Amino acid sequence: MHAILITEHGGPEVMKWTELPTPSPARSEVLVRVEAAGVNFIDVYFRKGSYKMTLPAILGVEGAGVVERLGPDVISVRVGDRVAWADRLGASSPGGTYATHVVVPEARLVAIPPEVDVQTAAASILQGMTAHYLSHSTFALRAGHSCLVHAAAGGVGLLLCQMAKKAGARVIGTVSTDEKAALARRAGADEVILYATQDFESETRRLTSGRGVDVVYDSVGRTTFDGSLGSLATRGMLVLYGQSSGPVGPFDPQVLNAKGSLYLTRPTLGHYVATRDALLERATEVLGWVKSGDLEVRIGATFPLREAAQAHRALEGRATTGKVLLVT
Predict the structure, then answer these.
(1) What's the predicted TM-score (pTM) here?
(2) Structural domains in the chain, sorted by start
């Protein structure tokens, strides 16, 4: 098999196209031929060393492809099945999904509906479930709620705008360009703030007649954190689920009191799909919406697997919209 291997932390240049032995599936595992792997900011964090991992390593946590070989005791999938996954918890072999082949535990696989192509499944499995838990569980939106979605034209942002609108909430999005603003509006954003030329905190206050929003979904981190807190209504919630601009520094929790008895949470998808039942429930609803056309998945860019470094440069340079995929 071939994979993108890193042997040191650093910039995109540390990602190397490498030939490696193809792993064998252990008990209750399958070997999947990867057709599309998702590119996410968490991959950037691991590459840079912001998140710890043992080197050498293969990046990538999600993907979709075709089952090629079964380990002992596998009962729910067959060779030739099309499957997707958002993590490999419990896998016997190390290595991520920036590869032509990967071993995935049977319990972490989701069947791709016949009506959904493999690339769309890869583009919607992790980010779709992320948008789902954010809008349905962390802060369960409903009619009458208002929310601020940062990076509203990104992979999660576009899906989150759609789900928030589906729930009946008023959606305000932040983006960097007019092109991205049009995409956010198409996804359901009622108002869009161009953060490069407008102060999103004051604009959010203006758009809500001074009240603020019930929830801010913030994947940006360091550069938006203070403004996100300042955009909340009394007893509002800041959902900090990423750090594309860098980690948030230490802060005094008394700020939450002073700004209106605010809530702050730092969730992650793994805790919302920790069991097989939870994974299937969330994935089935997301892929069902994709199948029916109720959820539009935008694949903004695809790169050949061996050009993973260029995909990272595009993602970090804010040059992408929607989902970025590596294809084999």
Answers:
(1) 0.94
(2) 2-123+270-327 (3.90.180.10), 142-266 (3.40.50.720)
